[in-house]
């Protein structure tokens, strides 16, 4: 895992711009703490920060093609290619020789052999920039599911790119301007493909190639979800899911550094850990879980959490023989200013949703990094197999909007509550959301003859995979990379996604429970307690003192008339929230508006944002 940056300009001489490129690359130091590299010619400059995972001695970047085609192309690459050994053998048969054991060299020589078509051969998570010296062309490629981030920004006669916005923002030619659409992307729980918070900055869409040359910029999809008939019976489907998932986990265990799993005791992380333990035997797999000291002492059942994670994680660890570690956090750690600053600097935007999960995930990953460099996560199973409640709520399924933003679920994603009525009117989130929903539905592939139920559930799955999952993958990437930890996501193996996307809903939901198909596929490696467990989301603190600390910070903001968000707030509502009693904080309460307001204020203060509203 690494951080990449680059700058192409056909009017400037990059020999005189290396200081800026170095600052762009340096901004990504936490993503790659082990090494730094810079490459340039007259019109292109590439930067790289390395987290050494495979071929620790070799694999330095940016990398030229070596003895074959040394003057043809150079790459800066973030991620892992899980099938690089298979590709290496194929390339050797074609006459290529290799000087390292790295997947980077395989990637570069695959480009020389197959051009951009090599992207369709890759199994992995990746974001890369290739400067093709033969055509004076920059090629940006992002993995199919968008596990690894990749941003770009066109200048008057060139283009900038980087793993995170901060790399682009480090270039003095970039304006930190945020318009209404940027705010809409911040406050609505829908991640619009390609769009970012900053004017003029875009993401490479998952499964896309972006090219930039003297002719200008072009974009092309090399992969997208397709609707195809599912011909396997139920037993074959279960077996196929099991085989693909087991193989994906096995491929993602490959590393020259310590590997572990993230284990909550839920179905998804338990399946990953169980397959990892099985594939790694007789060596023990190491696993980590997180919770809060206050939850361990006095857990209370709430609307979405029926039981604490710890007993289930311990049961799974015992069952598979994992070396398990529980990371327990205190609410005061979540409020620590230095931790909040690290979260903000990792995101380059406000953390409007997920609340205390941002700092708790950062603290968990920081602790894991003391023991491991790579961690396997269970993200994406809910989106693929239908795990969320809105997949099973008829009102949410039939609603003419994103299902997670219907009345039964939207309360978990509310961040607008403290904004002034005038600003809310300008944002007009309802219209923006309606337009984005319409755009998303137009993309959903159609299978002729499909039943109305399967057609709608295909739409729901597509919306979750393309508009919701990205928020979770971003959260995982930013918090893990902030401490130099690589998180891999076996459920994002494109073979699994493609296969399950076309499984009829009655097979995914065969017994009426969430993720029925996954349960069946992993049944033989799980203890009954895990197999029968009801879904429970990532733990959140129930400590009233956490909200008290947030309300104290809000009181300081309201009292400071120079605070950048002061004029954006509904002061009457803010005052009422500040006066909320200690007793009330023990009752179920959505902290979204409070968290959103404070994060927005920190971001505007630290990033000197030009808010054009």
The number of distinct structural domains comes to 3
Shape: globular
Write out the CATH superfamily name of the largest domain.
HUPs
Q: Helix proportion of residues, in percent? A: 40-55%
Distance between the termini: 38 Å
Q: Which sequence of strands runs across the widest sheet?
A: 2-3-1-9-8-11
Task: Estimate the strand proportion.
Answer: 15-25%
Low-confidence stretches are 582-589
CATH topology value of the largest domain: Rossmann fold
- Regarding CATH, which class of the largest domain? Alpha Beta
Quickly give the CATH architecture of the largest domain. 3-Layer(aba) Sandwich
What is the number of E strands? Answer: 19
Main sheet summary: 6 strands, antiparallel
Number of helices: 24
* Classification by helices and strands: alpha/beta
Description:
- With 613 residues, the protein is of the alpha/beta class.
- The protein folds into 3 domains: 2-221, Aminohydrolase, N-terminal nucleophile (Ntn) domain (Glutamine Phosphoribosylpyrophosphate, subunit 1, domain 1, 4-Layer Sandwich); 234-419 and 435-531, 3-Layer(aba) Sandwich (Rossmann fold); 549-612, no CATH class.
- Helix content is 40%, strand content 16%.
- The strands form 4 sheets. It has a 6-stranded antiparallel β-sheet.
- The radius of gyration is 24 Å and the shape is globular.
- Residues 582-589 have low confidence and may be disordered.
- InterPro entries: Asn_synth_AEB (IPR006426), Asn_synthase (IPR001962), ASN_synthetase/amidase (IPR051786), AsnB_N (IPR033738), GATase_2_dom (IPR017932), Ntn_hydrolases_N (IPR029055), Rossmann-like_a/b/a_fold (IPR014729).
- GO terms for molecular function: asparagine synthase (glutamine-hydrolyzing) activity; ATP binding.
